[in-house]
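Hi,

Apologies if this is the wrong queue. I'm a grad student, and the batch job for Putative aldouronate transport system substrate-binding protein from Streptomyces paradoxus produced an output file that my downstream script rejects. I'm not sure whether the problem is my script or the file. Here is the sequence I used:
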Amino acid sequence: MQNAGQLSRRQILAAAGFIGLATVTGCGSGEDGGDSKDLSKKRHGAMKNYRAGQQFKAAEPLSFSVLHNNNPVYPMKDGWLFWKELTKRTGVTLKPVDVPLADYEKKRSVLIGAGDAPFLIPKTYHPSEVAFVSSGAVLPVSDYVKLMPNFRDKVRKWRLEPELDSIRQSDGKYYLLPGLHEKVKSGYSLSFRTDVLDRHGLTPPTTWDEVYDVLKALKEEYPGKYPFSDRWSTNTPFPCGALFSYLGQAFGVRAGWTYDNISFDHKAQKYVFTGAQDAYRQLVEYLRRLVAEKLMDPESFSQTDDQAVQKLLAEKCFAMSANPQELVQNYRYNLEKQVEGAKMEMVPVPLGPAGPVVLGGSRLENGVMISSKALKSDSFVAMMQFVDWLWYSDEGQRLARWGVQGVTYTRSGRQYRPKPGISLMGSDPDAPKDMQKDYGFYNGVFAYGGSWELVSSMFGPDEEKFQAAMARREQLPVDPAHPLQSFEQEQATLWDTPLKDTVIQNTLRFVLGKRPLSQWDAYLAELKSKNMQQLVDLHNKAYERFRKENG
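Support response: The file is valid. Your script probably expects a header line. Output copied below for reference.
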């Protein structure tokens, strides 16, 4: 279930093998703000007075190449209705360059490095665009958003400027057009066998103290079982990545999938080392207590997802991390077939010391890079108008998610439903047609971001309830921009990986009791010996510099 968007900034850079190609000051500055005369020759097929909310239609037929991340769950088909309807509405034919999902990051790097990349490069998670900045291979798209009225309108309406600032490079520009969300969408939390809770007079917990009490009560009823066994531990650098992420939120600290060595202390107004924070220690102490008292299965940190789910289905445990899709399509569907009267519910993320908050910064999603070659095209302006319509207009987003009204879905006010005979993400397992596989809609390459009304139109009853509860919580401020220059990025990367490895290894050792928590100060000393303070100082210097230059 995990994607590249949940890796740390510098980890992706390291994996990409483009360390030396990090940000460089002033890249693209020759194009900054002074392009009107150049663009006058690049308006072939463009609309003259294109504006927000208007249907984009190319003045004459155009085609643009696009990198297509081919998902094995819904393999690409040339005959998808998505392609045909898109051309019908916009006059644009997309020419997909198909890349298997498993090789997407690697193949994308190779294509860009060889100068063979398509014009449009979607499904790019920040900060992987940074690797292509200094070579000039991708455009500083912030120079061209003047051509994108829907994008600008949503940024203004939803006050997304701080989020966009967080992806700017040291030249003050950003090189990725991210998916834009009106509200934070939470993904994961704890789920419980509520029929078992009911049987013993227990209520679903709302705080982490109550989680402990419920697990303790279940342990007393079933002394030979671990009440809580977890998953999402393999194929990720951070075992139990989902649990650490949402538990970290309750403690006000990034952990698990959202972990990054550097995070901003908004009270102190400076960057600090995440794995050394007091809140991080409290999180570790909480999990250590669950494991020590046999309330949590220690195999959670090493078992595969299938092994974890089998324990749930065999009633060896009664609680497990979930997201709404897994809850409905996996846990509940299979439990109900095997265990009579079984009920499984996902609770809103339990509250902790940080109160009713969600971490900031999650209103941006993966997005689109534009190849620098595209700027040489005489239809560049039309291409940017097209990108604006498909990825950022309400109509374009509705088409990408739901398809064609009356053909693939019906709508009554805010209520959207797949047409009978069409299944959407398992909504009707017996339906002869599937929205993604057979029609190409709700494809992760094109369908992301959007208004809360549109995003929530795809929620089942469980997710609707969960997201409504989470949407009432306060979003913590976004970490401010602190882009590193190329030589700083190289240095940070050298320090970053050993520090992160030390944090992950010791987090697990503390939680599993292989290292006593009395050695926390010794652990902090180990981090210091691996250049923790130098890394923090580097980021604070970058933060101060960016603030002075762009304040």
